Amino acid sequence: MDRSTATAGLFLVLLFSCASCVSGEDQPKNNTATSCAALTNCGDCTDDRDCVWCETDGNCQDGGFYGVSGELFGGCRDWRWGQCKGA
Fold first, then answer.
1. Is 33 helix (H, G, I), strand (E, B) or coil?
2. Residue 62 near residue 50 (C-beta atoms within 8 A)
3. How far is it, in rounded angstroms, from Cα 19 to Cα 25?
4. C-alpha pair distances (Å), 41 with each of 4, 21, 61, 75, 83
5. pLDDT tens track of the chain, all 87 residues?
6. pTM, rounded to two decimals
7. Domain range summary for the chain, segments of one domain joined by +
8. Are 79 and 67 in contact, with CB atoms under 8 Å apart?
9. Half-sphere exposure of 37 (CA within 13 A, CB side)
10. What is the C-alpha separation between 3 and 7, in angstroms, rounded?
11. Beta-bridge partners for 62
12. Rounded CA separation 61/42 (Å)
C-alpha cells in the first residue's frame, strides 16, 4: 500500500467515525432541563422542537416533526408540532 492510499483510507475512517459530530446526533435534546411532560400548555410545548402537544390528551409529549416519539400507530391521534391548533 502506498502512502497516498493509506492517507486516503485514514481520512475516510476519520470522516465516517465523526459523522454524528457533524449531524448533531450526539447533541443533547433542546429540553434537557425540563422534560416535555412538565410543559402544561400548548404554547410552551410547541415552542420546544423536541416536544409535541397531544390535543387528544391535553398534554405535552416527547416527539418532533413526525409526531410522538415511539408511536407508529395509536396513542395520540391529534398532535401538534411547532404551532397550536387554530394558530
1. coil
2. yes
3. 9
4. 58, 33, 11, 19, 12
5. 666 555 554 444 444 443 333 334 334 455 444 699 999 999 999 999 999 999 999 999 999 999 998 876 667 889 999 999 886
6. 0.58
7. 3-80
8. yes
9. 1
10. 6
11. 51
12. 11
